[in-house]
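Today's session is about reading a structure prediction critically. Students often jump straight to the picture, but the first step is always the sequence itself: look for stretches that repeat, for charged clusters, for runs of hydrophobic residues. Only then move on to the predicted structure, which in these notes is written as discrete structure tokens rather than atom positions. Here is the chain we will use throughout the hour.
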Amino acid sequence: CSSPEVRSQSEHCCGLYKNARMEMADEEVHMKDAVSWLSEEESEMDSDSKHLLGEAKKKGLHYGSTAVSGEQESGSSRRRRRVWWDCCRDQWGWLPCWRMNRVGPTPTRTIHINTIETNLESQFCSNRISTTKYNFLSFLPLFLYDQFRRYANLFFLLIVFLQQIPGVSPTGRFTTAVPLFLVLLATAVKELIEDYRRHKADNEVNRRWVKVFRCGGEELVHWTKVVVGDIVEVRNKEFFPSDLLLLCSSEPQGICYIETSNLDGETNLKIRQAHPDTMDQDVKRLGGRVECEGPNNRLYEFTGNLQLDEHRLEPIQADQILLRGAQLRNTQWVRGLVLYTGHDSKLLQNASRAPLKRSNMDRVTNRQVLGQLHGSLGAEKE
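Below is the predicted structure for this chain, in token form.
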């Protein structure tokens, strides 16, 4: 035991054990903080949520415990947190936030069915979309910034300034200014034409018509007039104006077929089915509320609950959601509740604004201009 090799190995093992214990202690601290927050949330739950929590505990899920469905979970408390997070997501309609050791509820929204005034008070996003790069005020500063990120243009602009000083340049004052102005003018015209086409395409989408059920009646409105909480009717081969909860359809069992090529590139038809509590009801007399997660870019996930008048909370599945950008196919009509509008929809959450592009040639030219300028200044110093 007194051998130096044995002692070194023993010290190494002790160091690893201490590090592991420290990591476990830190994880347990985060776990205790989370348990205290969940205990406070449990005291504020309604009867339905407490019932679901009791069912989860009967299956073996406990605060700070590794038992899940009768099986002993091994590993660090990080795995236990992940299991608890998944179970909360499946059992309830809200999510404890475990990401990056943050503890707190995720943003949610409450949508009242056939109650426009209450939904308008929440000030949800408008259904108008815009994918343009510029507007009337931002065109000039953004365009100039984009152009003079190219050091070649900046170099010629410097030459233009120097040519305006008498006795500095042997050439005329407008020898470089006129060509530079013409290049910038031609580029500005090209940018304006491209942005006008984006604006025209946006207007075509915003001015599409859709049937909306409001205040016991129905009316045709533009897509821009659709608000969260409306019930809309989409006909065959039409696109969905926003993210919808499927309430009923013309097919048996509330089934419909959609094409999602604009979302994921897949041309095969997908099946969606209406919520069981709404497929046989009159949407004009429907009442209740929906509690769901806030806007996000997850196309294949959804977390929310539906509660009709004098009914218990029922979970909403991802296959009951119709996303904006998808197209109704082989189904006469469907009716759905608007959940997310405009830039809050999952399609727009995954889209990015038109970027200020810069090619590899621009980067190479920038380096060459800087190198040439540095060489000229170095030669003058010598």
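Discussion point for the tutorial: Confidence is low (pLDDT under 50) at residues 56-106.
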